[in-house]
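Please check this today:
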Amino acid sequence: MPFWSPKSALLDSVTNLQRFRDYLIFFGPIACLTIWFFVPRLPHNNSFNILYLFLTTCILTIFHAALISHSYTLAPISVIMITALVKVTILKSREIAIIYGSSIICGCAFVMWQQDRTDILSVHLLISNLIIISWLLYLGKDHYTSQSLNFIHTQQQSKAKQQITMQLMELEAQKVQLKVLLGRDTLTGLFNRRYFDQKLAEEIQRATRAHSPLGLLVIDIDHFKMVNDTLGHQVGDVCLKQVAIALNKTCRREIDTVARFGGEEFVVLLPNTDKSGLTLLAKRLLQAVSDLNISHPTQPKLTISIGGCQFDEAHMDSQQFFQNADQALYQVKSSGRNNFMIHTL
């Protein structure tokens, strides 16, 4: 058996060499483009990569087994095709060595089976395949390392973005919570005057734009000063909390705004509510506070007085709107308290 075979055992004629050369020239570029285009779009899993690479490299190593002559064994097109396979997949060096090594053995076995001879296994062929395997291992390791680093970097970036997003969401939630806390009365838990003033301006704009009714009730606890002076401020605070709860429960709609305006005075802003709605709600509020049966030092029990007004965009601004409701409350207090009155033009 000769130590060095000068020509291919499969391509033993000029015609065969020319055909095989033309085949690589035309098939090679098309195969490369096909690999680069389709492989990244195919399902990405380790089993698929190994099977695909094994089948493809078996075919390529048959080419190399056929191209034993030095001028064709390291043909650039063939090397580019194998390089493309390595660059579009992500495998460890061990996997590359196993896949390409076993495929070379498969290719050589195929040639030996076809020719029924072993003299084709020349040093030239072995060195050629060894060079290719070394080249693939280098490319594969470099590609695997770069892709791993890119993956780690991408994961770190994604994690950092998630952390930033969570921090921004927490900050936004804290802003909302702070805004709510700033808009709440610390004693009763109702909205405070600052929030009510903002809400009043917003609802007036909305009612004016939509030409929808808007109602306002101003509520005052009758003779509340006597409660503080006689029973103490702690008892007075308890009374304020109980009244606030009763008012809030009676105004059941989410669009209603119940606020503590100051001291023993409360306000209720009622979108989409006309005079009849104000009258009905005022009666319910009077009854709700009466049902609390809170003791009072100078009268049978704690009561409230209510003044109301429906917004008229043609004759009122926000200040006049509130003044009309407050004036109605003043008339109720002047006429005996524990009642309500709705302002009329």
Q: What stands out?
A: Residues 123-182 form the longest helix (60 residues). The longest strand covers residues 214-221. Strands lie at 214-221, 257-262, 265-271, 304-310, 340-342. Residues 5 and 248 are 100 Å apart (CA to CA).
